[in-house]
Amino acid sequence: MGKWTRRGFITAGVVGSGAMVIGVALRPGHTTPEAAKLMAGDTEAMISTWVKIDSDNHITAVIPHSEMGQGAQTALAQMLADEMDASWEQVSFVEAPAEDVYANWAAAKGFILGDTAVPKLLVGTVDGLFMQASKAMHLQITGGSASIRTTGVYGMRVAGAAARQMLMEAAAADWAVDIADITTIDGMLIHEASGKREPYATFAAAAGKEKPPLSPQLKTPDQFKIMGKNKPRHDIPSKVDGSAMFGIDASVDGMHYASVKAAPVFGAQVASVDATAARSMPGFVDVVNLDDAIAVVATGYWQAKQALAAVQIEWTATGNEDVDSENVFKAFQADMETADAAGETNSDMQVGDTASEFDGADSIISRQYKVPYLAHTCMEPMNALARFENGQCEIWTGTQNPLGCRYDVAQALELDVENVSIVQHTMGGGFGRRSKSDAAIQAARIARAVGLPVKLIWSREEDVQHDHYRPAVASNFRATLNSAGQPQAWENLYVDKHEPAEAPHIPYAIPHQKIHYVDSPTHVPFGAWRSVDHSQHGFFVESFIDELAHEARQDPYQYRRNLLADHPRHRKVLDMAAEKANWDTPLGENRGRGISLQESFGSLVAEVVEVTVIDGNVSVDRVVVAVDAGFAVSPDGLTAQMESGVVYGLTAALYGEVSIDEGRVKQTNFNDYPMLRMSESPVIETHIINSHETWGGAGEPGTPGIAPALTNAIFAASGNRIRELPVSKYDFTYEFREQRES
Questions:
Q1: Closest residue by Cα to residue 232 from 78, 424, 60, 80
Q2: Collapsed DSSP state (helix, strand, coil) of residue 84
Q3: Residues 298 and 412 grouped into a single domain
């Protein structure tokens, strides 16, 4: 956290009547003139900017991240405001537009370099390269739990500190005093000896003329006034009073509605369409062939949906019409066995000599785990409003990557990107699903075809059956234990490696490790799902380590703890969860506790779940979470994200299953793809550790550990060992029961 020389050049300029903007440049002294055309009123303009100070001393943070309930925009504004020594009441934020100059270089740099030191002379070049790369990738993504740990750390804090220093220098020059004698508080510059006191706005123009500092002095945690505090989220009031604009709320004059039905088997195309019956229905306007889908446009959404149901569609064959979930998993297993026998697996990690350990072992513990495809099922279904006129396409939607969405639409319509604009809205859930641009592309194609503004809304059935799913995965484990019950060899073979690369890796001190994988592709489209590969491997690893503890006849918490001697930070989080959950206190008959530990997205999370298993039913009673994200910028926000991650993960662990039948998704709606209800939600307690290590993320780390903690608790309560999700597949009255050992 001390190597700030690499974190970006800051450049400033004067715009309008006394407004100062602070931005990150490609090299010292460089500005981006084209940004001046964006978001410009009569008295101000933006120049590749993170923050501006208006003449009334109001500070606006420009945030290159989307809002989908996680509160990142507020937390990022907190980081900037604190480094500026501004009061929270004088700070607001706006979301950055979908323009190249707002490609998020800080996110790219944080992902790739992290805290790697960059020589001072190369900082400008490195940041310039990341800016160019971000533009080339159209990167404005909100995901990967990256807002705080990349944009906040590399962008907002640096820009805020630079602005404060420049304002102090301008005041010192005007007052003819030593800058060391100037202090700041609540957006004011103060010189105690002379009694002079002025708002930041007084010196905004003068400060903007000066070359910004390369490495502004950042606050230490003991100096924080806004970071680490629970400040009111600026997005909450509009969500409470109903004025918040979600994508599905967008409206323009002359707007019509569209409903869409895509090919049920992924990859199929439209073979023929008969819309005779639909054309006579009330409100019908037109039918549009989208190649792999059919859309109906009508005067209202209900009319469009009803007319679509009356359209007769024939689809082309793909060769995948006989694929079902059972043979998907059979193929996984066959591919693993074949590749392993031939020595043709892909190496993920190799430590020590597992082959010798297994060859000399008296006994080998082998287990197999499986998880199904999962849908995202955001509460707000996929939607987009499009208007296509005079070669120009406007899109109103909520997306996790506005800049990327703009380029995707332009490419799909074969337009220059300058002819496409995105009006970004708040999202009713994202979880990775809204990083895809499919709905926006469909809306744009439909609007162009009919020559009318069209709001496309996916039905819930379409949303469930044409998602980009979390992949189904199978994972095989083997391990050996020494005479003390400690694991000596660990082997994990799984199918299909995605992101992040470290997801299958373990923190436990096992001398011989072999982690490898095989490719076993299916025709089912996949995409990012909250916590991505950590959600699968978290369940696999923390289930298997629990089984090893059982084989060793040792307490699961202590067993993990003993294997973490080289990881005191992990141990502290694990200890906190066990302590707060009263781990050593018996729960009574038919009740049990399970524990898990997961490192993901720079954060450590331990979870303890308490369950009751009685009369064949599982009740999740309590979840205790301990989290170390380095530092909690907004403790309430971090707590909310842990709770959200737990609920989302519990839904998946208890009920989540997208099954394939005849090449298509079998589930249709919440009747057969259920979610955790409020009445089923457990008490969730979150305990935060501020270790002040490298700051991590919050949006996803609460999800991976909940499934194994749950299933480990079910085993403790009932003797049922769950190796395949969801839990609802099991009948706890008699099936899959193992003999528990005392």
A1: 78
A2: helix
A3: yes
